[in-house]
Amino acid sequence: MKNPRNLLLPAMVALLAVVLAGHAVPAQEAPSGTIEYTPTVGQAGKDVIWVPTPDALVERMLQMAGVGPRDYVIDLGSGDGRTVIMAVEKFGARALGIEYNPEMVALSIRKAEEAGVSHKAKFVEADIFESDFSEATVITMYLLPRLNLKLRPILLELRPGTRIVSHAFRMEEWEPDEESTVESRNAYLWIVPAKVAGNWNINVATERGDETWALTLTQEFQMLTGRVQFPDGSSDLVDGRVRGPEFRLDVIDSDGSRREIEGRAFGNRLAGTLRDAGGISRVWSAERGEGTGSPRT
Q1: Torsion sign across C-alpha atoms 254, 217, 175, 59
Q2: pLDDT tens digits, 228-263
Q3: Domain 55-191 is classified in which CATH homologous superfamily?
Protein backbone atom coordinates (compact mmCIF):
# COMPACT_ATOMS: atom_id res chain seq x y z
CA MET A 1 0.00 0.00 0.00
CA LYS A 2 1.31 3.45 -0.91
CA ASN A 3 2.13 5.94 1.82
CA PRO A 4 -0.75 8.54 2.03
CA ARG A 5 1.85 11.31 2.41
CA ASN A 6 3.35 10.41 -0.97
CA LEU A 7 -0.10 10.77 -2.55
CA LEU A 8 -0.81 14.15 -0.93
CA LEU A 9 2.57 15.81 -1.58
CA PRO A 10 2.16 16.40 -5.38
CA ALA A 11 -1.34 17.81 -4.84
CA MET A 12 -0.11 20.21 -2.13
CA VAL A 13 2.75 21.43 -4.32
CA ALA A 14 0.35 22.05 -7.21
CA LEU A 15 -2.08 23.94 -4.96
CA LEU A 16 0.75 26.10 -3.52
CA ALA A 17 1.91 26.97 -7.04
CA VAL A 18 -1.58 28.15 -7.97
CA VAL A 19 -1.86 30.32 -4.83
CA LEU A 20 1.55 31.91 -5.38
CA ALA A 21 0.80 32.55 -9.03
CA GLY A 22 -2.32 34.47 -8.05
CA HIS A 23 -0.22 36.89 -5.94
CA ALA A 24 2.80 37.24 -8.19
CA VAL A 25 3.69 40.51 -9.91
CA PRO A 26 4.15 39.82 -13.61
CA ALA A 27 7.76 40.41 -14.65
CA GLN A 28 8.54 42.78 -17.49
CA GLU A 29 10.69 41.40 -20.24
CA ALA A 30 13.32 43.78 -21.63
CA PRO A 31 13.90 43.92 -25.39
CA SER A 32 17.01 41.79 -24.96
CA GLY A 33 14.94 38.97 -23.48
CA THR A 34 16.18 39.54 -19.93
CA ILE A 35 13.85 40.38 -17.05
CA GLU A 36 13.84 44.12 -16.44
CA TYR A 37 14.17 45.38 -12.89
CA THR A 38 10.99 47.07 -11.65
CA PRO A 39 11.38 49.25 -8.53
CA THR A 40 8.67 49.28 -5.87
CA VAL A 41 7.47 52.46 -4.18
CA GLY A 42 8.63 52.36 -0.58
CA GLN A 43 11.54 50.00 -1.16
CA ALA A 44 14.50 50.55 1.14
CA GLY A 45 17.61 52.36 -0.01
CA LYS A 46 20.86 53.34 1.69
CA ASP A 47 19.51 56.38 3.55
CA VAL A 48 15.91 56.73 2.34
CA ILE A 49 13.07 54.69 0.92
CA TRP A 50 12.29 55.20 -2.75
CA VAL A 51 9.26 57.36 -3.47
CA PRO A 52 9.31 58.92 -6.96
CA THR A 53 8.67 62.62 -7.49
CA PRO A 54 5.62 63.12 -9.75
CA ASP A 55 6.53 64.24 -13.26
CA ALA A 56 4.53 67.46 -12.90
CA LEU A 57 6.55 68.44 -9.84
CA VAL A 58 9.84 67.45 -11.48
CA GLU A 59 9.02 69.82 -14.33
CA ARG A 60 8.10 72.61 -11.91
CA MET A 61 11.34 72.13 -9.93
CA LEU A 62 13.39 72.45 -13.10
CA GLN A 63 11.39 75.55 -14.07
CA MET A 64 12.02 77.09 -10.64
CA ALA A 65 15.74 76.60 -11.15
CA GLY A 66 15.54 78.19 -14.60
CA VAL A 67 17.21 75.17 -16.21
CA GLY A 68 18.37 75.66 -19.78
CA PRO A 69 20.81 74.33 -22.37
CA ARG A 70 23.81 75.89 -20.62
CA ASP A 71 23.12 74.12 -17.32
CA TYR A 72 24.62 71.01 -15.78
CA VAL A 73 22.02 69.40 -13.53
CA ILE A 74 23.04 66.85 -10.89
CA ASP A 75 20.29 64.85 -9.19
CA LEU A 76 21.29 63.52 -5.76
CA GLY A 77 19.66 60.14 -5.29
CA SER A 78 18.39 59.90 -8.85
CA GLY A 79 16.19 56.80 -8.43
CA ASP A 80 14.64 55.75 -11.74
CA GLY A 81 16.29 58.68 -13.55
CA ARG A 82 13.18 60.72 -14.35
CA THR A 83 14.59 64.09 -13.22
CA VAL A 84 17.82 63.66 -15.18
CA ILE A 85 15.98 62.51 -18.30
CA MET A 86 13.48 65.38 -18.15
CA ALA A 87 16.25 67.95 -17.61
CA VAL A 88 17.78 66.80 -20.90
CA GLU A 89 14.63 66.00 -22.85
CA LYS A 90 12.54 69.09 -22.03
CA PHE A 91 15.11 71.68 -20.97
CA GLY A 92 18.14 70.84 -23.10
CA ALA A 93 20.57 70.61 -20.18
CA ARG A 94 23.36 68.15 -19.52
CA ALA A 95 22.52 66.06 -16.48
CA LEU A 96 23.99 63.47 -14.12
CA GLY A 97 22.22 61.18 -11.69
CA ILE A 98 24.04 59.92 -8.60
CA GLU A 99 22.36 56.79 -7.24
CA TYR A 100 23.51 54.17 -4.72
CA ASN A 101 21.34 51.29 -5.99
CA PRO A 102 23.07 49.62 -8.98
CA GLU A 103 19.76 48.21 -10.27
CA MET A 104 18.27 51.72 -10.32
CA VAL A 105 21.33 52.97 -12.19
CA ALA A 106 20.97 50.24 -14.82
CA LEU A 107 17.25 51.00 -15.15
CA SER A 108 17.96 54.73 -15.57
CA ILE A 109 20.55 54.08 -18.26
CA ARG A 110 18.03 51.97 -20.19
CA LYS A 111 15.34 54.63 -19.85
CA ALA A 112 17.73 57.33 -21.08
CA GLU A 113 18.59 55.19 -24.09
CA GLU A 114 14.90 54.63 -24.83
CA ALA A 115 14.27 58.38 -24.60
CA GLY A 116 17.18 59.08 -26.93
CA VAL A 117 19.00 61.31 -24.43
CA SER A 118 21.86 59.07 -23.30
CA HIS A 119 24.40 61.38 -24.98
CA LYS A 120 23.60 64.07 -22.37
CA ALA A 121 22.03 62.08 -19.51
CA LYS A 122 24.54 60.09 -17.46
CA PHE A 123 24.17 57.98 -14.32
CA VAL A 124 26.73 56.76 -11.80
CA GLU A 125 26.52 54.31 -8.93
CA ALA A 126 27.88 56.22 -5.93
CA ASP A 127 27.25 57.58 -2.44
CA ILE A 128 26.22 61.24 -2.66
CA PHE A 129 28.29 62.04 0.44
CA GLU A 130 31.40 60.71 -1.25
CA SER A 131 30.75 62.38 -4.60
CA ASP A 132 32.00 65.61 -6.13
CA PHE A 133 29.18 67.69 -7.59
CA SER A 134 30.99 71.03 -7.54
CA GLU A 135 30.61 71.44 -11.32
CA ALA A 136 26.81 71.51 -11.13
CA THR A 137 24.90 74.67 -11.90
CA VAL A 138 21.69 73.06 -10.58
CA ILE A 139 21.24 70.48 -7.82
CA THR A 140 17.96 68.56 -7.45
CA MET A 141 17.07 66.25 -4.57
CA TYR A 142 14.32 64.46 -2.68
CA LEU A 143 15.99 63.51 0.59
CA LEU A 144 15.09 63.50 4.27
CA PRO A 145 15.58 66.66 6.41
CA ARG A 146 18.58 65.19 8.25
CA LEU A 147 20.28 64.47 4.93
CA ASN A 148 19.52 67.99 3.67
CA LEU A 149 21.18 69.38 6.80
CA LYS A 150 24.17 67.09 6.37
CA LEU A 151 24.53 68.36 2.80
CA ARG A 152 23.95 72.02 3.68
CA PRO A 153 27.57 73.03 4.41
CA ILE A 154 28.68 71.28 1.21
CA LEU A 155 26.02 73.05 -0.84
CA LEU A 156 26.94 76.44 0.61
CA GLU A 157 30.49 75.95 -0.70
CA LEU A 158 29.28 75.59 -4.29
CA ARG A 159 29.75 78.47 -6.70
CA PRO A 160 27.57 81.47 -5.89
CA GLY A 161 24.50 81.33 -8.08
CA THR A 162 24.20 77.53 -8.07
CA ARG A 163 20.50 76.68 -7.79
CA ILE A 164 19.30 73.95 -5.43
CA VAL A 165 15.78 72.53 -5.59
CA SER A 166 14.34 70.13 -3.03
CA HIS A 167 11.10 68.17 -3.10
CA ALA A 168 9.22 68.30 0.21
CA PHE A 169 12.01 69.08 2.67
CA ARG A 170 13.72 72.31 3.71
CA MET A 171 17.08 73.14 5.34
CA GLU A 172 15.99 74.61 8.67
CA GLU A 173 17.39 78.15 9.21
CA TRP A 174 18.47 78.48 5.59
CA GLU A 175 15.19 79.86 4.28
CA PRO A 176 14.33 79.08 0.65
CA ASP A 177 14.44 81.86 -1.92
CA GLU A 178 11.28 80.53 -3.56
CA GLU A 179 8.53 77.99 -2.83
CA SER A 180 6.02 76.28 -5.11
CA THR A 181 3.26 73.69 -4.76
CA VAL A 182 2.14 71.19 -7.40
CA GLU A 183 -0.48 68.52 -6.75
CA SER A 184 -0.30 69.28 -3.00
CA ARG A 185 3.47 68.67 -2.97
CA ASN A 186 5.98 71.36 -2.09
CA ALA A 187 9.22 72.31 -3.79
CA TYR A 188 11.85 74.72 -2.45
CA LEU A 189 14.54 76.69 -4.26
CA TRP A 190 17.77 78.05 -2.81
CA ILE A 191 20.40 80.06 -4.65
CA VAL A 192 23.88 79.66 -3.19
CA PRO A 193 24.86 83.10 -1.85
CA ALA A 194 28.24 84.75 -2.29
CA LYS A 195 30.18 85.24 0.94
CA VAL A 196 30.15 88.99 1.53
CA ALA A 197 30.37 89.15 5.32
CA GLY A 198 33.13 91.33 6.76
CA ASN A 199 34.59 94.81 6.38
CA TRP A 200 34.66 96.63 3.05
CA ASN A 201 36.12 99.94 1.91
CA ILE A 202 33.68 101.50 -0.57
CA ASN A 203 35.00 104.02 -3.06
CA VAL A 204 32.27 106.28 -4.41
CA ALA A 205 32.18 109.58 -6.30
CA THR A 206 29.84 112.03 -4.57
CA GLU A 207 28.94 115.67 -5.11
CA ARG A 208 31.66 116.42 -2.54
CA GLY A 209 34.26 114.45 -4.49
CA ASP A 210 35.66 110.93 -4.16
CA GLU A 211 34.95 109.40 -0.76
CA THR A 212 35.70 106.16 1.03
CA TRP A 213 32.96 104.65 3.16
CA ALA A 214 33.50 101.82 5.65
CA LEU A 215 30.91 99.06 5.28
CA THR A 216 30.59 96.22 7.77
CA LEU A 217 28.33 93.31 6.89
CA THR A 218 27.07 90.36 8.89
CA GLN A 219 25.68 87.47 6.88
CA GLU A 220 23.30 84.68 7.85
CA PHE A 221 22.90 82.58 4.74
CA GLN A 222 21.38 85.02 2.20
CA MET A 223 20.34 87.68 4.74
CA LEU A 224 22.57 90.71 5.39
CA THR A 225 22.74 93.30 8.16
CA GLY A 226 25.39 95.83 9.06
CA ARG A 227 26.44 99.46 9.17
CA VAL A 228 28.06 101.96 6.81
CA GLN A 229 30.27 104.73 8.24
CA PHE A 230 30.84 107.98 6.34
CA PRO A 231 33.96 110.22 6.33
CA ASP A 232 32.33 112.72 8.70
CA GLY A 233 31.96 110.01 11.36
CA SER A 234 28.22 109.52 10.97
CA SER A 235 26.85 106.08 10.20
CA ASP A 236 23.67 104.37 9.04
CA LEU A 237 22.31 100.88 9.42
CA VAL A 238 22.03 98.60 6.41
CA ASP A 239 20.05 95.46 5.72
CA GLY A 240 19.66 93.43 2.59
CA ARG A 241 19.82 90.13 0.80
CA VAL A 242 22.31 88.31 -1.43
CA ARG A 243 21.08 86.14 -4.29
CA GLY A 244 23.93 84.24 -5.83
CA PRO A 245 26.72 86.75 -6.55
CA GLU A 246 24.29 89.69 -6.61
CA PHE A 247 23.04 91.61 -3.61
CA ARG A 248 20.94 94.56 -2.60
CA LEU A 249 21.32 96.72 0.51
CA ASP A 250 19.00 99.32 1.96
CA VAL A 251 20.82 102.11 3.81
CA ILE A 252 18.56 103.29 6.62
CA ASP A 253 19.11 106.94 7.52
CA SER A 254 18.57 108.28 11.03
CA ASP A 255 15.22 109.70 9.95
CA GLY A 256 14.11 106.27 8.68
CA SER A 257 14.45 106.99 4.96
CA ARG A 258 16.14 104.38 2.76
CA ARG A 259 18.69 104.48 -0.02
CA GLU A 260 19.39 101.52 -2.28
CA ILE A 261 22.76 99.94 -2.95
CA GLU A 262 22.96 97.22 -5.59
CA GLY A 263 26.07 95.25 -6.38
CA ARG A 264 27.81 92.06 -7.36
CA ALA A 265 30.52 90.10 -5.59
CA PHE A 266 33.76 89.22 -7.40
CA GLY A 267 35.68 87.35 -4.71
CA ASN A 268 37.38 90.02 -2.59
CA ARG A 269 35.88 92.85 -4.60
CA LEU A 270 32.40 94.34 -4.86
CA ALA A 271 31.02 96.70 -7.48
CA GLY A 272 27.67 98.24 -8.27
CA THR A 273 25.50 101.32 -8.17
CA LEU A 274 23.82 103.27 -5.42
CA ARG A 275 20.95 105.70 -5.48
CA ASP A 276 21.55 108.65 -3.16
CA ALA A 277 18.98 110.70 -1.28
CA GLY A 278 18.50 112.95 -4.32
CA GLY A 279 17.70 109.99 -6.56
CA ILE A 280 21.01 110.21 -8.44
CA SER A 281 22.68 106.87 -9.33
CA ARG A 282 26.38 106.60 -8.61
CA VAL A 283 28.90 103.89 -9.46
CA TRP A 284 30.91 102.42 -6.60
CA SER A 285 33.47 99.68 -5.98
CA ALA A 286 34.80 98.11 -2.80
CA GLU A 287 37.66 95.97 -1.55
CA ARG A 288 37.88 93.91 1.61
CA GLY A 289 39.24 95.63 4.67
CA GLU A 290 40.72 94.13 7.82
CA GLY A 291 38.78 91.91 10.17
CA THR A 292 36.62 90.16 7.59
CA GLY A 293 33.99 87.81 8.90
CA SER A 294 32.32 84.63 7.67
CA PRO A 295 28.67 83.95 6.89
CA ARG A 296 26.74 81.54 9.00
CA THR A 297 26.42 78.11 7.43
Answers
A1: positive
A2: 999 999 999 999 999 999 999 999 887 777 789 999
A3: Vaccinia Virus protein VP39 (3.40.50.150)
